[in-house]
């Protein structure tokens, strides 16, 4: 595998543990130019095959959070998001969806604390047109709440979104320009929503909810469970099970879901487990833990039909990332380790992979996030075997 890392910023940090951890607020970070402009993460990616362009959503305190990467020139271009941003629009978390007309729907997430909730107006839902390079603000679907992820039902013309810190699920009707809260998913004990939700072939939305054990001091054995929302009947089905656990203390939190070409929902968990759910029969099948680390947030089905995955494997003693790329064959259940996501020219590797997409055939782009020692990189992995 051939790996190359690309950087928008080149900023090193040597004071995260010494000064920042447990001490700094977002205002402290905003006042420090290194962190305001250099603490950068690639949180979500979308490949545009017609334009041969990769769109990237970032975490960046300066609000310059939407960029394009041109593989032909190996260069980045800012898409000018600060023109419509306010200071609270610091992140595109899992919120890029390509619409049928080639435009993109994006939504903003937060970094600020609760003491700013009456100043911060709420996450924006925005349409971006790559042809005209213009933005249209569709609205703030849930006032004062910010948007962790969206998924798009192109047939019904509905954007489903999931908010934080209050874990609401909302539906935004693109034709009417109206939004409504469908449900509350969380509790006060843990983040219950899945990292992203999916729309199955029947048009139903799948995600997770968190049990509420207000009468106990501990969470139960199944704290995170699946739900299915059917827009045809405007009803929820709340299941009493979630993804398989990899160890007894695993909460079952979901890091990535995708609907495969076989109609099954493939799931990577925060604990590094891989499984699939049949949305028609509700049968759940575990494939164990194919990845050495945790945070199986990078998961994509490629053109060859296989699933490719990566996540957070941490850092070695020299501070270099140790994430690896693997291939999983849904037909056989077999896993192949494709090697480290490591650029020998930089003598560095990916520490935390937050999203993975296939660009050109056999070429995968891994978005790194939350590196505490440098600006995060975009990693290109060209599979040669």
Jot down its keywords.
four-stranded antiparallel β-sheet, 4% helix, single chain, mainly beta, 41% strand, 385 residues
Number of helical segments? 3
Whole-Å distance between the termini? 7 Å
Q: What would the average pLDDT be, to the nearest integer?
A: 96
Cα shape = globular
Q: Class by helix and strand content?
A: mainly beta
Query: Strand fraction band?
Result: 35-45%
Number of strands: 30
Strand numbers in spatial order across the main sheet = 1-30-29-28
Helix content estimate? under 10%
The main β sheet shows up as: 4 strands, antiparallel
Regions with little confidence, pLDDT below 50 for 5+ residues: none
Radius of gyration: 20 Å
Describe the structure.
There is one protein chain. This protein is mainly beta. Helix content is 4%, strand content 41%. The chain has 3 helices and 30 strands. The protein has helices spanning 16-20, 26-31, 33-38; strands at 2-6, 41-48, 53-59, 66-70, 75-78, 96-98, 104-107, 125-129, 134-139, 146-153, 158-164, 168-173, 178-184, 198-199, 205-210, 224-230, 235-238, 254-259, 265-269, 274-277, 284-286, 294-301, 307-312, 324-328, 335-340, 342-343, 348-349, 353-358, 363-368, 378-382. The strands form 8 sheets. A 4-stranded antiparallel β-sheet has the order 1-30-29-28, with no helix packed on it. It has a 4-stranded antiparallel β-sheet with strand order 2-3-4-5, with no helix packed on it. Strand 24 and strand 25 form a beta hairpin. The chain is globular and about 50 Å long.
């Amino acid at each position: 595998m051939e790996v190359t890392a690309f950087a928008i910023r080149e900023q090193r940090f040597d004071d995260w543990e010494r000064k920042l951890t447990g001490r700094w607020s977002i205002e402290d970070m905003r006042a420090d130019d290194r962190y305001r402009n250099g603490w950068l993460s690639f949180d979500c990616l979308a490949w545009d095959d017609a334009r041969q362009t990769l769109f990237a959503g970032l975490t960046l305190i300066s609000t310059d959070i939407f960029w394009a990467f041109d593989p032909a020139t190996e260069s980045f271009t800012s898409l000018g998001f600060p023109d419509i941003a306010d200071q609270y629009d610091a992140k595109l978390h899992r919120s890029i969806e390509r619409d049928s007309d080639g435009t993109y729907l994006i939504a903003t997430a937060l970094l600020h604390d609760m003491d700013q909730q009456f100043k911060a107006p709420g996450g924006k839902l925005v349409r971006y047109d790559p042809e005209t390079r213009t933005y249209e603000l569709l609205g703030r679907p849930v006032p004062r709440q910010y948007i962790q992820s969206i998924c798009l039902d192109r047939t019904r013309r509905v954007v489903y979104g999931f908010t934080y810190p209050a874990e609401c699920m909302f539906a935004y009707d693109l034709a009417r320009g109206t939004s409504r809260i469908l449900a509350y998913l969380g509790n006060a004990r843990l983040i219950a929503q899945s990292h992203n939700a999916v729309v199955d072939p029947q048009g139903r939305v799948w995600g997770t909810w968190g049990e509420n054990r207000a009468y106990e001091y501990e969470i139960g054995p199944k704290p995170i469970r699946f739900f299915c929302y059917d827009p045809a009947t405007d009803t929820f089905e709340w299941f009493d099970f979630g993804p398989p656990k990899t160890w007894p203390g695993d909460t079952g939190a979901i890091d990535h879901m995708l609907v495969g070409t076989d109609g099954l929902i493939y799931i990577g968990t925060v604990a590094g487990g891989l499984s699939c759910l049949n949305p028609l029969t509700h049968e759940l099948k575990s494939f164990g833990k194919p990845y050495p680390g945790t945070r199986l947030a990078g998961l994509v089905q490629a053109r060859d039909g296989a699933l490719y995955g990566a996540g957070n494997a941490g850092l070695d003693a020299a501070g270099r990332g140790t994430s690896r790329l693997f291939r999983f064959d849904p037909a056989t259940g077999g896993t192949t380790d494709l090697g480290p996501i490591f650029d020998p020219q930089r003598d560095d590797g990916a520490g935390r992979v937050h999203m993975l997409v296939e660009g050109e055939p056999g070429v995968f782009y891994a978005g790194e996030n939350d590196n505490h020692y440098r600006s995060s990189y975009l990693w290109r992995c060209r599979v040669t075997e």
